[in-house]
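Please fill in the sequence for the structure shown.

STRUCTURE ENCODING:
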């Protein structure tokens, strides 16, 4: 693909672009372009033969706002009208997922925020540490008692499935805590349920 540098005034925003940008994110985009203008060369605006933007409408808006006069583009002359419509959507679809464990441990949260990354609301982002899956269970009865015998926590699709399981191995319901049911199991092994399986 041939990258060209053209006058921004010759580029036309796409009136059919369903992607919008809000004030805070727009400000971050402008700051990102000012801080790292080389990114524009590496990711040019994509236009059709009529100079209508297919990919990069928000960047074009930011460039105009910043008062820049030129922008790198790539012409997608070979795309049919249907392919152009697909490109407008597919260019904005995020297929991957972030590895939040790696983000929390290997990247500076403040920099990521400045660069415009959508970060989860986890309170004070400056103190974001490795996420521990068991943190959500702290404070629940199963994790409070240090000397209690080991417990197995099972989650069921429905209360009916829980009842079916409880009845199949002759358990007794002891208490209900949040979304989980606590049950007791006699400490001695019971031959009557030793070989039972539940699906």
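FILLED IN BY: designer on duty
SEQUENCE:
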């Amino acid at each position: 693909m041939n990258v060209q540098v053209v006058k921004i005034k010759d580029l036309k925003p796409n009136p059919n672009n369903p992607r919008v940008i809000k004030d805070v994110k727009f400000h971050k985009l402008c700051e990102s372009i000012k801080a790292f203008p080389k990114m524009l060369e590496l990711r040019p605006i994509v236009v059709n033969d009529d100079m209508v933007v297919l990919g990069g409408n928000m960047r074009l808006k930011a460039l105009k706002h910043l008062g820049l006069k030129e922008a790198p583009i790539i012409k997608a002359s070979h795309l049919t009208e249907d392919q152009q419509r697909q490109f407008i959507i597919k260019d904005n679809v995020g297929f991957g997922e972030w590895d939040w464990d790696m983000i929390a441990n290997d990247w500076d949260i403040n920099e990521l925020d400045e660069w415009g990354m959508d970060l989860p609301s986890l309170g004070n982002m400056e103190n974001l540490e490795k996420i521990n899956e068991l943190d959500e269970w702290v404070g629940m009865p199963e994790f409070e008692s240090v000397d209690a015998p080991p417990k197995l926590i099972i989650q069921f699709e429905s209360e009916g499935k829980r009842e079916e399981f409880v009845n199949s191995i002759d358990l007794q319901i002891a208490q209900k805590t949040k979304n989980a049911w606590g049950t007791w199991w006699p400490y001695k092994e019971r031959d009557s349920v030793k070989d039972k399986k539940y699906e």
